[in-house]
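README: folding subset

This subset contains proteins for which both the sequence and a predicted C-alpha cell string are available. Records are stored as plain text. Below is the entry for Vacuolar protein-sorting-associated protein 36 (606 residues), shown exactly as it appears on disk.
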Amino acid sequence: MFLRGLDLTTALRPSLYDDETLLFVQDGVGLYEGKFKLPNYQNGHAYLTSHRVCYVDNDDPRKFSVAVDLKEIERPEFSARFLKSSPKITLFPKPKRPGTQTIRSPTPRYASPADGLLPSGQTTPRSGLQTPSLAANREVTATWICPICGMSNAVPKNFDPATANQHTPLPPCQACGIQPPLALIIKVSISAMTNRPLATPALSNGSAAHSSGDASSSHVLTKGINQCPRCTFQNDPSMRECEMCGAPLSAAGIVAVHRVVKDQRAESPGPSFSGSILDDETIETIKFSFRAGGERPFMDRLKGALVQRKWLLQSAPPVPRPAGTPRTSIDGQSRVNMPPQRVVGIAGLERRGAELRQNNQTVIGTAFEDLEALMTSAKEVIAMAEQFAKQNGSDSAEARNLLSASASALGLVTTKDMLGSGTASETLYVTELARNLAEFLTDDRRGILRREGGIISLVDLWAVFNRTRNGIELISPLEFEKAADMWENLRLPIRLRTFKSGLRVVQERSRTDEKTIASLLVWLRESPQNTIDHIFGIGVTAQQTAERFGWSVGVATEELEMAEEIGAICRDQSLDGIRFWENHFSSTFGEQKAIDAVTMLSELRI
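--- output ---
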C-alpha cells in the first residue's frame, strides 16, 4: 500500500487530474497503519474522488497530506463503532504482480515489543533481527526529449505504460507544442522504472560494530544516496531537488540520514514511525478513522467508485458504434459484410450530414438518461453545443458567456450531497464553500480579481459566483458571508476586508494598505499634461481613480478616504467636486502644523 504525496491547490484542497471528479468530503478524520496511529495524521479532512482517497491535514496541510490511488485498492472493509473506538474504513492493497521490483517484505516491523521504544535503525541486544529499511521510491521521475526542438519534458505522474494505448492523451512539448509519439513515452517510462535505485541496506547493530557501522553508513549516504535519477548528479543528502536540473530527489536518502543522525527516544511508548510514511511498501493496511461521522456515505461512495473505475477512462478507446443494418442491394439481396461505398458530391455531403445528426442524437439520448451519464458525457455535450453555436452563427458575447457558465457548472463544485450528515455537517459545508471560493478567485483562467483591479466587493463576488453556477446549487447571502468570514481561520491566500463605511470587499492577502497608498502616490506624483506648474503633482477624483485601477467607484472612494485618514493624501473640495492630492503639508510645515492646518480648513468649510 503506497501513501503518495498530495499536491494541493491555493485553497488547500487536492489538486485534481483532468478527468477526476470530487465525490465526497468528510472532516474529523485520522489515519492508522494497522493498529497504530500515524503521528501528525490525526486531524484532517478525507476527500474521496473518482481516482483517489486523499487525506489533507488541518494543522500543516502542505507537509502532512497523502493520497491512495483507487487502482491499488483490493477491497475496503468497514468497522463499526465499538465503545470508545471510532468507526473505521480499512483499505487493503492489491497483491503485487510477479516480476515487479516492489515486493513487500515478510519481515515484521519490530522484532520484539521493546524495539518499538527505540529509534528506527536500532534494535535490542537480544533481538538479532534488523528493522526493514525503506523501499525504493515508487514515484518515477521520467523525462522525454522532444524530437523536434530537443526540449526536456517530464512524463505525467498518472501515466501508466501498462495500460497506455493510442487513445491515451499525451501532453505536448512545453517549447514547441508538438505532441510526442506514444512509443517514446512508453520507452522512457519503462527505462526510468528499470533504472530505479534499490533500497538502502539495513544497518548492523552489533555492540562492537555499531559505531563503525554508523560511520560507514553515514559516509555511504553522504556520497551516493542522493543521486539524481535524471542527470546522475551527486547531491547533498539534505537536498530535496537536484542542484543541476531541478528534478525531485528520492526521499529515501533524507529519511536514511535522519535515521542515522537522530538518536532520541520516541515520544510515544508504543511503536511509532520516525521516518516518512510516503511510498513505504512495508505498510500493509491503511485505516481511515471517522470521528465526526460520515463513515456510511463515504463507504457507499467508495464502493461505487471502485466499481466504476473511472481512472481507466483516461486511456479507454471511444465507445464502439452500433453496427449498421444490413444494406440491401438493387437485386434485393442482403450484403452484411459489404464495405461502405464511397460517395462524393452532393450525395456524400448529405450522407455525412445524416451520419452527424444520428451521432448527435445518440450522444444526447445517452447523456440525458440520468445524472451520472450526463456528467460522464459533459465534454461531448459541451463540444456539441459549441458546434451548434458555430453553425447557427451565434458568436455574441452573451452566447459565449452562457457557454462558459455551463462548462463551469459541470466542473468541480462542492455540493451538500458531497458532505457527511454528522453534527458538524453545516460547518463542513461552509468550510468547503470557503475553499471553493478561494479557488474561484485565484483561478488564472477566470481572472476575477485581475479584471477588478485586485479588489472586488463581496456583493459583486456573490453575484458573479452564483451566475457561473448557472442555476445549480445557488448560494444564499448568509452562507456566502459565513464562508467569507472563514478565510482568515483557514489561512487562505485571500482575505475579507471591511471599510469604515461598512463596505466589505475581497482582495488578496498580500495586498496591504501600504501597497495601495504607494500605488496612489506614484500616480499622484506624475507630471500633469498641459500644465506649467506641477510642483504639487495632480489632483484626481474618485471616478478617475476607479478608471485608473479598475475598481468600482465605491471601492475607489473608500481607498482614497483610507489614504486620507492615514495622512498620505488630502482633499480639495471645490465647486467642481472633490479632488485628492498628495499631502505636502506634513513635509512643508511639520506634522503637528499640518494637522492644525487640516483641522482649520475643515472648520472653515463647515
